[in-house]
Design a protein that fits this description.
Distance between the termini: 28 Å
CATH class of the largest domain: Alpha Beta
Radius of gyration: 27 Å
Number of helices: 20
Oligomer: single chain
CATH topology of the largest domain: TIM Barrel
Length: 586
């Protein structure tokens, strides 16, 4: 454990969250009502004006590198041609330059989980950019409906009609029914699948919507920025929530800039069964892990594995075939890395991972998922370690020549429960050569047999908590405690079937499993092993590009930066170092 003094010294630098505010553009001038800036400053944010321009490749992305939150301000109508519609007669002034800029800005900000607040035109732009629909003119869209006055002549800071809320953040802040101001003739017609409507006026017009997932993305139809200049602070809680969300986002970004982050298990070669993918140095449409997504998500190191399906053959011919496949996959991983040099490099030790990070280089380590790969030849373990491999998962979903799996299948040839006699030799040899023993997929008997026999701590590179999701692949609390007592580490997995039994798993479930494992095993014995491109990936952390979102939610859950450093690789690298040190000693 770090001392309080050491922990304090390692805190990442903090600053006021930067809130980008899009500006209106008319008569050749950029314009912004002063209430936006005043409201952001009043709640501790640092406002940054974002003038519109025609987006070129990468420009909007570069802007987003420098902000922690985004306010989409009011202004002119959206050009309907940009969403595939002809204009209605009541359409007002449009500004295509601003429209194109903001549509792209919103899509990229949403993908990066940047907190967003859309105001008036802003809520409409959120809908237009993210799968919803806007009404070009409320009266035209609702003929014969008695409408409230949505474009007031009263002073801007005066509330003129009521809205009624549904459960959500807006209701929590302002109550079930409250009054708002109103300066618009357009509105959101359909919020789309990414949002839920949380407020309406009495005529049914949508007045607020909120993201359905863990993102802070909120849109309101009224103008909350107009109240503060009139001395009314009632709308500041909305800006405060945005700034708080932006602060957590900034802290997550800062953490990933200053700390090594490691994912202990991904199956990316499995996505390309013919191993004909020439590069991972561009964004892949099919793989959840590539070097572009790793950089976007602030992920500095991953362990790519050669996954081997468990076959029923236990003879020389079968072992020869699996050996050839293993070497082919390991060679492909190496080729991907070489193609991406010098920004990506292979690593085989904790020191190499840390040195690569210090140089701004992404690390790729290699492992084998299923000890079936070695056949019955112990010498291959030393050979694989000399090739730079860091761990071998003893089995996969069926029993093999080494041990019994968690999903024991009577249809396969077995060698009894737990470790076989040969498996005991495998454990000792892996200790001797410095290969980490990975017990993900192993049965409980295999787990305890290995803990008793191994001279060094072991890992479960992608496993979860059975107390939260009753699945034989997950670890019981007793196993978590035993693993910790032996100095090992469990790396929490993102597969929905291991996260919850019913309903759709999300990143919040990943957080639940991490927190439970920390409570049971202790903060020194938990890490992150996504299983991306195997079965891992859920809403909120669906690819390597979204890893920073997990950090944000862990911070919001009260996890400290010192604990995050352990979770994001510190614990795993410590166990790896012990295994490699033991090999040097013996």
């Amino acid at each position: 454990m770090n001392t309080e003094k050491e922990t304090s010294a390692r805190q990442t630098p903090q600053r006021r969250p930067v809130i980008g505010i899009t500006a209106n553009f008319e008569d050749g001038q950029f314009k912004l009502q002063p209430g936006y800036v005043a409201s952001v400053e009043a709640v501790g944010g640092l406002p940054l004006l974002l003038p519109p321009h025609r987006p070129q490749l990468g420009e909007a992305f570069d802007v987003l590198d420098h902000i922690d939150g985004l306010i989409l301000s009011g202004g002119a109508d959206l050009n309907p041609l940009l969403v595939g519609e002809d204009p209605v007669p009541a359409l007002g002034n449009i500004n295509s330059v601003r429209d194109e800029f903001e549509l792209e800005l919103i899509r990229q900000a949403y993908a990066r989980h940047i907190p967003m607040l859309g105001i008036c035109r802003g809520i409409q732009m959120l809908a237009a950019a993210l799968g919803g629909r806007i009404e070009q003119d409320i009266a035209t869209a609702h003929p014969g409906v008695l409408l409230v006055k949505h474009s007031q002549q009263a002073p801007k800071g005066t509330a003129t009609h009521f809205v009624t809320t549904e459960p959500g953040m807006i209701r929590n802040l302002f109550g079930v029914r409250f009054a708002v101001n109103s300066f618009h003739h357009q509105a959101v017609g359909e919020a789309g699948s990414l949002f839920r409507v949380t407020a309406r006026s009495s005529d049914g017009v949508i007045e607020a919507m909120e993201s359905r997932d863990s993102r802070f993305v909120v849109g309101v139809q009224w103008h909350p920025e107009c109240f503060l200049p009139e001395g009314d602070r009632s709308m500041l809680p909305l800006f405060r929530r945005l700034t708080e969300a932006a602060s957590f986002f900034e802290r997550a970004k800062a953490f990933h800039r200053h700390r090594v982050t490691l994912d202990s298990h991904c199956d990316t070669p499995m996505v390309f069964p013919n191993l004909d993918q020439p590069t991972l140095n561009v964004r892949s449409d099919v793989a959840l892990v590539d070097f572009v997504k790793m950089r976007e998500g602030g992920l500095h190191a991953t362990i790519m594995v050669a996954y081997l399906k468990q076959e029923k053959g236990f003879d020389a011919k079968a072992y020869e075939a699996v050996d050839e496949k293993t070497r082919r996959i390991l060679g492909q991983i190496e080729a991907w890395v070489k193609d991406a040099e010098p920004t990506v490099s292979l690593a085989a030790t904790p020191a190499e991972v840390r040195n690569n990070f210090a140089r701004g280089v992404t690390s790729v380590m290699r492992g084998i998922e299923n000890g079936y790969a070695i056949g019955e030849d112990l010498s291959k373990l030393e050979e694989y370690r000399k090739m730079g491999l860091v761990y071998v998962t003893l089995c996969h979903n069926n029993d093999n020549q080494i041990c019994e799996s968690a999903r024991h299948d009577e249809g396969y040839e077995t060698f009894g429960k737990g470790l076989s006699d040969f498996g005991s030799h495998v454990v000792k040899e892996m200790n001797r050569v410095g290969l980490l023993i990975d017990l993900s997929h192993a049965s409980e008997q295999t787990f305890y047999d290995t803990l008793d026999l191994s001279a060094v701590p072991v890992v479960c590179s992608h496993s979860n908590c059975r107390a939260l999701c009753d699945h034989p692949r997950n670890l019981t609390d007793e196993q978590l405690k035993a693993l910790a007592e032996k100095g090992g580490v469990v790396q929490i997995n993102f597969y929905h079937g291991f996260l919850r039994k019913d309903g759709e798993a999300t990143v919040e479930d990943v957080v639940r499993h991490i927190l439970h494992a920390m409570e049971v095993a202790g903060e020194d014995h938990v890490g992150i092993g996504s299983d991306f491109d195997g079965d891992g990936g859920v809403k909120g952390v669906a690819s390597a590009a979204e890893m920073m979102n997990l950090t944000r939610l862990l911070l919001q859950a009260g996890v400290t930066e010192a604990q995050l450093e352990k979770l994001w690789g510190g614990n795993f690298l410590r166990v790896m170092q012990k295994a490699q040190d033991y090999a040097k000693e013996v």
